[in-house]
Design a protein that fits this description.
eleven-stranded antiparallel sheet, single chain
């Protein structure tokens, strides 16, 4: 992996990741951009004890631009984008409309009251472009490119974790308009949080309680049990295992774990990194194969969220790195909406049994990217 860092016209950082050195990465961003002011703030909910980020400036962010004006495509034919190069493999840059930003303290004043606790939304949000091909998807990548994305996630986890005040780094991908994606170009995001999000806090508490009652690690026992029963196992490699969780919340949900428990992406060894791309691409293509497209129509792309759960910078020693992949589609043409009990009470009701979901995913014939089909 070869890394080249540069800056955009407004001072934001842009990092190119290439499989090999040599590609020209000296293109200059000539857009007349002024530095954007971040008004992000984090507020503590006194009832739930959870932090909420308020980022009102994001109302002005780019929303469903036509393909010819995509800000994530390379800058070509006189059209300038967020990426000055005429082509790229993987590119990562600071979001121009971030939910969290290092400069928030310049514009937001902290507030300390028992019922009204507020902090500047210090942190960082980055965009990860998986390919320069606007019409592709992560599932269309070959294994070397998927490995390069993994290397980029790992690099950014290390870099962002080192920033002052950052407590947790979260890498994720939203795919599909049904999920709420506003830019169609294949990309993901990385958030560097100034607090430990509530879901991680709950996992830490559960793992601690399990250790206290059994003397063992929750995640190691969980993975061992799923690998032993195999009822919900979807894929298994020498270094990774993918299974539908026993109490899955979503119609089709798979958790992908390294077989060796590690805290975060930076702790993976070379054997684990080498095996990941093939298994992950297989898993994504199985998701697409769940709901086949009608004959003569465009290939199906199942909407999904893919999220890396990593231990925070401090604490969380009982946690295990894993990726959670799920879709809100429950059947052809039908979505799982978060309605009264889910959105109002965080009490999930699923329409598909985890065992049936695992069986369907095992039987799904993964689609192949166009180059693998010889097209």
């Amino acid at each position: 992996m070869h890394k080249t860092a540069t800056t955009l016209a407004d001072g934001r950082e842009l990092v190119y990741f290439d499989q090999e050195p040599g590609a020209p990465r000296d293109a200059v961003d000539t857009r007349p951009l002024e530095p954007a002011a971040s008004l992000s703030e984090t507020r503590l909910d006194p009832v739930l004890g959870e932090w909420v980020t308020v980022a009102a400036h994001r109302q002005q962010r780019t929303y469903h631009p036509p393909a010819g004006e995509c800000p994530l495509c390379p800058s070509r034919d006189g059209r300038l984008s967020e990426i000055p190069a005429a082509d790229y493999e993987v590119a990562v840059f600071e979001n121009r409309f971030p939910s969290l930003a290092t400069g928030s303290a310049d514009h937001v004043t902290a507030q300390d009251e028992p019922l009204h606790t507020l902090r500047p939304g210090n942190g960082r949000c980055e965009v990860v472009c998986f390919t320069s091909d606007h019409d592709a998807s992560f599932a269309d990548l070959d294994e070397p490119r998927a490995r390069l994305v993994l290397d980029a996630w790992t690099d950014r986890t290390a870099e962002l974790s080192a920033l002052p005040g950052v407590q947790q780094v979260y890498c994720f991908e939203n795919r599909g308009e049904e999920i709420g994606v506003t830019l169609a170009h294949p990309h993901g995001q990385i958030y560097a949080f100034p607090f430990v999000p509530s879901r991680t806090t709950r996992m830490i508490a559960q793992a601690g309680a399990y250790r206290a009652s059994t003397g063992r690690n929750l995640f190691e026992d969980l993975l061992a049990a799923e690998r032993a029963t195999r009822e919900r196992l979807v894929l298994q490699g020498e270094h990774w295992s993918a299974f539908v969780p026993f109490a899955a919340r979503w119609p089709y949900e798979v958790h992908l774990y390294p077989n060796r428990r590690v805290r975060d992406l930076t702790a993976l060894d070379e054997a684990e990194r080498a095996e990941f791309p093939g298994l992950y691409l297989d898993l994504l293509r199985r998701f697409d194969a769940l709901f086949p497209a009608e004959p003569g129509s465009a290939p199906n792309r199942t909407p999904y969220i893919a999220a890396w759960h990593q231990a925070p910078k401090t604490g969380g020693d009982e946690l295990a790195l894993h990726l959670e992949l799920f879709t809100i589609r429950r059947a052809p043409g039908k979505l799982k909406y978060l309605a009264g009990v889910e959105s109002g009470l965080d009490a999930f009701v699923t329409d598909v049994s985890p065992e049936a979901a695992a069986e369907r995913l095992r039987a799904a014939a993964p689609g192949l990217p166009p180059d693998a089909r010889g097209e």
